[in-house]
Amino acid sequence: MTGSDAAQPRDFDAIVIGGGAAGLMCALVAGQRGRRVLVIEHANRVGKKILMSGGGRCNFTNLGASPRNFLSANPHYCKSALARYAPADFVAMVERHRIAYHEKELGQLFCDESSKQIVRMLLDECAAGGVRIETSCSVTGVQRRDDGFRIATTSGEAVAPSLVVASGGLSIPSMGASGFGYELARQFGHRVLPTRAGLVPLTLSGRHLDAFDGLAGVALPVEARCNGTSFRNAMLITHRGVSGPAILQISSYWNPGDELRLDLLPDRDAFDWLQAQRAERPAAELRNVLADALPKRYAQRLCETAFASRPMRQYREAELRAIAAQLGDWPLIASGTEGYRTAEVTLGGVDTDELSSSTMQSRLVPGLYFIGEVVDVTGWLGGYNFQWAWASGQACGNAL
């Protein structure tokens, strides 16, 4: 529905700003509880980030989702909602709608066919609850009144005692992301913690980028470490730096100037392996030995820039130990990130200290709620952010 009949009475029990994962979840739960709900979405369709996620197959949750998979200034805030709406609860809805899915790796669940099925499921559930959805509709003003909120939009005005802000963060502005939710939070006296791009490729510069010249497209398994956190997965070399799951994950823990280290041989003890190679292949050059464990072009580059390649028999034990130490603790000097343009999530956001962890309601303004990415709760890569959207949306929807 696009609001063409906006002249009708526009009085609701709850208005949800944002037709993404969290907003739709909140709306369908509240609608099916008998609440009259309006969802306002400024884009021309709802669920755009759902549609693009997982390469079009939507990594809709993670079976292992728990509070430890989330970053927040208050790591306890997400516990209540996540405990009350588990991955199995969302999977039950998916199965009820007969959407085929599979586990890809590390607990990540994807649709077998298309992410469109998840959006259709959410819309069908909203329809079952009588939820009204208005797309291509922008909010032009929000006022607090004695009886709730008056929302001015490009489709006319609407009033409701409850207002839910589910407008997302700043990531992927080409999909319509904006700072609207943060502006609204500040309007009502809420603190907004500093935001930055999360789950984002890292950029390199100068000689650090030159060291990867010509290697764009090369991928290898690594363990990335930063600030006491580590992730083991693939790293992808790009024209501007590095990406891939391991890098996207660690990017959420990295700030410019922080030390970032890579284990280039995460599945083996590098020193023991090099010693064994020297014993078994004494005539083989180091670059060819490394090429058995690393992409050939990358192994070649390592030997050009860091290790002088010669037959294995010529390396003393101390030299092999030094090479192994470097391979296991390789410094990655990043200069920055690709920013919100390609970031999957936004770190920071509305301060959770001013929100109820059980209902998502503002502690400052009765009837005002914040859910999903706009809140200072950010998940790992792999379906965790969707699970937070479902869980926070469900908590809020049950409170309206």
Can you offer a commentary on this structure?
Pfam families: HI0933_like, HI0933_like_1st. Residues 13-398 form the RsdA/BaiN/AoA(So)-like Rossmann fold-like domain. The protein has helices at residues 21-31, 48-52, 79-84, 87-96, 116-128, 180-187, 206-210, 245-251, 270-280, 286-290, 296-305, 317-328, 384-397; strands at 14-17, 37-40, 59-62, 70-71, 101-103, 108-111, 132-134, 139-145, 148-153, 156-160, 162-165, 192-198, 202-203, 219-226, 229-237, 241-243, 261-263, 330-331, 336-337, 345-350, 368-370, 378-379. The longest helix is centred in the last third of the chain and has 14 residues, at 384-397. It contains 13 helices and 22 strands. α1 (21-31) links the parallel β1 (14-17) and β2 (37-40). The chain folds into 2 domains: 14-193 and 349-397, FAD/NAD(P)-binding domain, CATH 3.50.50.60; 201-337, Beta Barrel (Elongation Factor Tu (Ef-tu), domain 3), CATH 2.40.30.10. α1 (21-31) packs parallel to α5 (116-128) and α9 packs across α12. By secondary structure, it is α+β, with helices and mostly antiparallel strands. The two termini are 23 Å apart. It has a 7-stranded antiparallel sheet. Strands 7-2-1-11-21 form a 5-stranded parallel sheet, with helices on one face. Strands 3-6-5 form a 3-stranded antiparallel sheet.
